[in-house]
Amino acid sequence: MDSLVAFRFSTWPRFCYPLLRAVTRLYLSKRRSSIKSLRDFQVLVEPYMERMIEQTTDSFSVSGLEALDLSQPCIFVSNHRDIALDPAFVNWSLHLSGQDTVRIAVGDNLLKQDWVADLIRLNKCFIVHRSAKDRRQKLADAKLLSEYIFHTLKNDAQHIWIAQREGRAKDGVDATNPAIISMLSLNKPKEQPLADYVRSLRIVPVSISYEFDPCDLSKAKELHTTEVEGSYDKADSEDIRSIVDGIVGFKGNVHVAFGKLLDAEFDSAKGVAEQIDSQIKQNYQRFASADAAVELLGEVNIESDGSFTPAEVDEAKLHLSSRLSEESAEIKRKVLSMYAVPITHK
Question: Short name of one Pfam family for this protein (predicted)?
Answer without folding.
Answer: Acyltransferase
